[in-house]
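Take a record.
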Amino acid sequence: MVLRGEPGIGKSALLEYAAERSEGCRIIRVTGVEWEMELPFAGLHQLCVGLLEGVERLPAPQADALATAFGWRLGTQPDRFLVALAALSLLSDATEERPLVCLVDDVQWLDRSSAQALAFVARRLAAESVVLLFAEREPSQLKELAGLPDLPVRRLADVPARELLASVITTPLDERVRGRILAETHGNPLALVELPREFSAGGFAGGFGVHGDGSLPARIEASFRQRVEQLPSDTQRLLLVAAADPTGDPALLVRASQEIAVPIHQLSPAEADGLLELGTQVTFRHPLLRSAIYRAAPSGERRAAHQALAGATNPEVDPDRRVWHRAHAIAVPDEDIALELERSAARARARGGLAAAAAFLERSAALTPDPSRWAHRMLEAAASKQLAGASQEALSLLSRAAAGPLDPLDQARLKLLHGWIEVDLSRGAAALPLLLDAARQLEPLDASLSRDAYLAALRAASVAGRLGSGMTEVARAALEAPRKPDEPRAVDRLVDGLAVRFTDGYAAGVPALKRALTAVREEGERNGVSVRWPWFARRVAAELFDDDTWHYLATRSVQVARENGALAVLPLALNHLAHVRCLEGDLDGASALLDEADGIAIATGTEPLVFGRLPLAGFRGIEVEAAALFEAAVPAAIEREGEGVLLTFTEHAQAVLYIGLGRYDAALGPALSASGRDELLVSVWSLPELVEAGTRCGQPDVANAAIERLSERTQAAGTDLALGIEARSKALVTCPG
């Protein structure tokens, strides 16, 4: 269950209430911290740290993924779904001794990897004796928990608010002052408890000292600050160090206290005042207290606190957290620390933490004294943000990088990345000029990257479809571009094959595209694949009726995107795999993949992709549901400024739907339009539908013309699938019954 409400409304109190009443249960907890670094899986590790003895009982793939995610061992990027599954197994196994209660406070501030993993766990808890409670501050942009059972925590009504206020203020209180306090605290329990501490008894009686300026959370923090300011200075210094450490590790706090030469027992006044508990974990009375202490401290004191924590952190055990504290302990650029942050970004990327890598790189850029290197690191941060699925944040970083002195290569890379982002946002028409310009600029600078840009431009043109006009231009430019003198890569072969396909026609392009598909598989199996592998080959394989390669690329792309946490590309990969599942007859499997893709889109704040749902709707054959989807898809494609391919997918799905329903006249127009567009995958797969619609409608000329076009393609492709489709279509025309 997710407890949702404004700061101070009682979410943390309710979590504590649950803990106190969970007799016989094991309690584990974690609290997100606003200024915590984006260290991948840091929150998940903190929550599960008491359960790690159970790792040895996990299946080997889960144990390996968790060990890599937690940084215990080096390895390839862990599959995030294996990490989440490992977390689910850990929680489930822990209940063999006694039930488990997991409390996650301020979940909106957990690192993204942990939030996604815990959302996965939450959706799959069934018979396990596990309670998983989240507290989420509103308003929040966190989408991972959307759809989970929730409990909105509301403000207190007038009567209980008066009762709570009376329990805090025992001195006589002027009724007008009482009314004003009740009005200004708006039934917020923490405000009712904490704000009266600001005022003297005389002030209450006379109506003085009740200040109404400032937001309610800010005023609560101000009240906490006043309490802290009454404590001895050494106690305040230790509280600041504790507030700057998100782990709540008491041993670390003791070591940090030695760094600043303040004995740990100086925390006693804060403990006596109920502000903090020092036990197996360092626990603040409320998250707002922690933020109040940290925000109120002068910048120099905050830096000193981080310096103490950096000195107390073992560089061998936790190098990333140490450098993060070091980065917050300085006020001027420092190339050594910037370089160390860059190394941390590489480690985060290796653990599947693209968002963390971006955070490290952004901080690295901020500490970089050289302007050129600053701009380069900002560009690298944008690239990580884009792959993590944060397209708008990536665009913001790109605009900052563009303001710096970039060399010609980075200027071209900036355009390439901008184009990739536009394609991710399904804005093919906007992406095309950026990608084509980048490809041309890169020709004399980096021939390999130039070919990558040409492939991205071909993909953008295919997305724009009928709403763009650039496919032929891109194909010709790619043909005329200089080639590398060495052995062509799979990407190079794919670009060459597509260029021939869209200049000289389908049959002319088949031999080169077949060689390209072979190279894609062989090169991937030999050297490994990455998020930037030429997954556009999925549509090429379908275009050539190469169902084996299509299936391989569709499943592998999902696996790689998951392993890398590449949320920018995972929804697209899931939609492609769902299309394959539809043709395999596994409609429920396709639906599950599409639900997952939509959940990721919601979590990353992007528009859910639709094209995978179109064939699913066609094959399911529920006309009312399908018609609503088709009707919504057309304006959406146009509104996104260049997703014309969606219109063709819609027409293909309409043809499938109406042929399945026996309404061949309704199928004829969409099949005719979709098959005539000459778009990758979808047009050639619309030809058999046109054959059947024309035959059933008594229009043999239409059917025979479609057979002729289909035969040209199937004979050129030459696969068993292609020849089988051709044979079936010819049999249908010969014997319509």
